[in-house]
Amino acid sequence: MKDNLSQSAVAETHGRETVSVRTEGRTAWVTLDRPPLNVMDIATMKLLSRALGKVFDPPGGSCDFLVFTGAGAKAFSAGAEVADHAPDRVGSMLAAFHHIFRQLARAECITIAAVHGHCLGGGMELATFCDFVIATESAHFAVPEIKLGSFPPVAMVTLPELVGPRVAMDLILTGRDVNSAEAKSIGLVTRVVSDTELDKSVRDLIGELRVLSPAVLKLTGRSMRRRLREEFENDLSKIEQIYLNQLMKTEDAREGIRAFMEKRPPSWRGR
User: What is the DSSP letter of 155?
Assistant: First the structure.
């Protein structure tokens, strides 16, 4: 790992640090820090992508473990900024956000999400894309995009593989909230820990893995992700086209975003 990354922070142009990276040996900790709910706007997505580029440089050689965390007491992340779904920004938002997952799909290191509080929408997509998800007892998960007249593109690809098609259909079409215990029972979460033990539990997991052969861990992870790497980008590209060229051209998608921004119930037109 490059020395200048060991205690670095990536800041938005106005100076507010929203993505930070620190390293401990061959473990990188990437933290979303956009209070109060660590919602990711386009700028934060680009900063996260830039941070991952530094973590993964040189490819496959500098990082054995990558841990995602959310700053503050309220959330891992409540997802993407709704305002960035406006017609003039949604294409840029989707490209910036999905680039993060394309980077992760090619990653060589073991990825871990340390989840507390709200883990919603794009935040849930990011967390559950990781190899391990460690969640506190009070954490909860949802992909509520359907309530805004939308759908979660990454989850459309990954959830059927993670939890099966019927459970994925339930979560995506209802947008319902699930607690960490249910999330573990359906396969979204690896381990559930007490609210005060999240950091320790992540470090314990890394300790379990660190005593194993790093070469074998990397090879095993690469082999298990083979199908993901082969099919994920193709499937995501197809969903992106549906999202941009069909979904976002419906009146109901535009109404859902307007209603959210205006803090009122949507008035669906069915077209």
Answer: H
* Closest residue by Cα to residue 153 from 53, 244, 28, 41: 244
DSSP per-residue codes, 56-92:
T-STTTS-SEEEEEE-SSSEEE--B-GGGGSTTTHHH
Contact criterion met (CB below 8 Å) for 126 and 80 = no
Determine if residue 184 is left, alpha or beta; phi over 0 gives left, psi from -120 to 50 gives alpha, anything else beta: alpha
Going by C-alpha positions, the residue among 105, 109, 103 that lies closest to residue 25 is 109
Active site residue 145: yes
Residue 47: HSE in the Cβ half-sphere, 13 Å Cα cutoff: 23
Which tokens go with 264? 């009122």
Q: Is the pTM of this model over 0.90?
A: yes
pLDDT digits (tens, 9 = 90+) for 159-215: 999 999 999 999 999 999 999 999 999 999 999 999 999 999 999 999 999 999 989
Cα–Cα dist 265/162, whole Å: 32
Q: Which of 142, 134, 140, 141 is nearest to 193 (CA)?
A: 134
Q: Classify residue 113 by its DSSP letter.
A: E
How far is residue 61's CA from residue 32's CA, in Å, rounded to a whole number?
24
Check if the beta carbon of residue 122 is closer than 8 Å to that of residue 80: yes
The residues near 193 (Cβ < 8 Å, ≥ 6 apart) are 134, 135, 136, 137, 201
Strand pairing class (110-115; 118-120): unpaired
What's the rounded Cα separation, in Å, for the pair 26 and 6?
A: 10
Catalytic residue among 17, 24, 125, 262: 125
Catalytic residue among 145, 230, 240, 251: 145
**The pair of three-digit structure tokens given for residue 239, joined into one six-digit string:** 């969903």
